[in-house]
Design a protein that fits this description.
172 residues; alpha/beta; 5-stranded mixed β-sheet; 3-stranded antiparallel β-sheet
């Protein structure tokens, strides 16, 4: 699979990946960091925090991919907030791919990005005192949650590329 992935530069200067087999990029070509900040941080995490005053939240992400959403969530996590971040991916990217992305250069958090991407799959890892990460290697359709989640980051490829993940049954 890794032979079919190219690192590309998006318009905001951040890298993304282009998956040749699907003819699909992992992020918007207009900006990987910009897209993730808009969709998942502004309209996910920050929206939830604006309406609630939690001390703890549970986030479920479908599509760990490059780890960018986890990194941005960790960077935007207020110090008083405990986050349990679970992410599911059926096809985890190898370190030789994620290490070629420039998120840590653009955001200045190499150690955090490496900790997130190098965290073992299927084991909970404390990234920092108030941010726990659980990466789950599984098909989303087979996943049976054992917790209630406050926020869901649904980061699958587009419906035209993975229609089986955009059905009413899956989304419910």
């Amino acid at each position: 699979m890794t032979n079919n992935i190219d690192v590309i530069k998006t318009e905001d200067g951040s890298n993304s990946l282009y998956l040749k087999d699907l003819d699909e990029s992992y992020h918007s070509i207009h900006g990987a960091i910009q897209e993730s900040n808009h969709v998942f941080i502004k309209n996910g995490l920050n929206y939830f925090l604006d309406w609630h005053n939690p001390t703890k939240i549970h986030i479920l992400e479908y599509g760990f991919g490059t780890g960018l959403n986890a990194l941005l969530t960790e960077l935007n996590c207020p110090s008083h907030l405990n986050i349990n971040y679970s992410s599911i991916d059926n096809y985890p990217l190898p370190e030789n791919i994620t290490s070629n992305l420039n998120y840590h250069e653009r955001l200045g958090k190499r150690e955090v990005y490496e900790a997130i991407n190098n965290a073992a799959w299927n084991n909970s890892v404390k990234i920092r005192d108030n941010f726990n990460l659980l990466k789950i290697e599984s098909d989303f359709r087979d996943y049976k949650p054992s917790a209630i989640f406050d926020i869901i980051y649904f980061d699958a490829f587009s419906p035209s590329k993975q229609p089986e993940l955009w059905t009413i049954d899956v989304l419910q």
